[in-house]
Amino acid sequence: MKANTIKDIFVDGSITPQEIAESIAQHATKKNIGAHSIFLGQVRADEKTEGVVQAIEYTTYKDMALEQMHMIREALFEKYELTCMHVYHSLGIVPAGEISLFVFVSAVHRKAAIAACTELVEAIKFQLPVWGKEILVNQNTVWKENH
């Protein structure tokens, strides 16, 4: 269901498995949905020259990010036959091994759900003003680059 209001996608800290399960469960009985596509972004314990990543601290310019997310959302609803779309992005510190991004797209048909989810994740990574500072085991920090 398309809504024209700007939704707050940001949550403090990690996105828990319980929050993900609850979001999925809310769609279990909807009869106009034929497919869901889900993406979970998880913090990796990458080994860098400077040290091993133990967490990422996410920051944003919230008003700008929410406005941009709203435009991305509206464009995807215009392009694909979607029933609903949910995005949750962490702010603050997320330890390695925990979820920092949850994207959940529902549609009448699987191709639309999968294509929209993929396009949405790419737009989030490269268009939203969200920055990640990797916190290393030795407490040094390195700004994360999206690839």
Please explain how this structure is put together.
There is one protein chain. The chain is an alpha+beta fold and 147 residues long. It has a domain at 10-42 and 61-129: Aldehyde Oxidoreductase, domain 3 (Alpha-Beta Complex). Helices cover 31% and strands 38% of the residues. The protein is built from 3 helices and 8 strands. It has helices at residues 17-25, 62-79, 110-127, and strands spanning 10-12, 35-42, 47-48, 51-60, 82-95, 99-107, 130-136, 141-143. Strands 1, 2, 3, 4, 5, 6, 7 and 8 form an 8-stranded mixed sheet that branches. A hairpin with a 2-residue loop joins strand 3 (47-48) and strand 4. The longest helix has 18 residues, at 62-79. The mean pLDDT is 94.
Secondary-structure map with pairings?
Blueprint: E1 10-12, H1 17-25, E2 35-42, E3 47-48, E4 51-60, H2 62-79, E5 82-95, E6 99-107, H3 110-127, E7 130-136, E8 141-143
Parallel strand pairs: 1-5
Antiparallel strand pairs: 2-6, 3-4, 4-5, 4-7, 5-6, 7-8
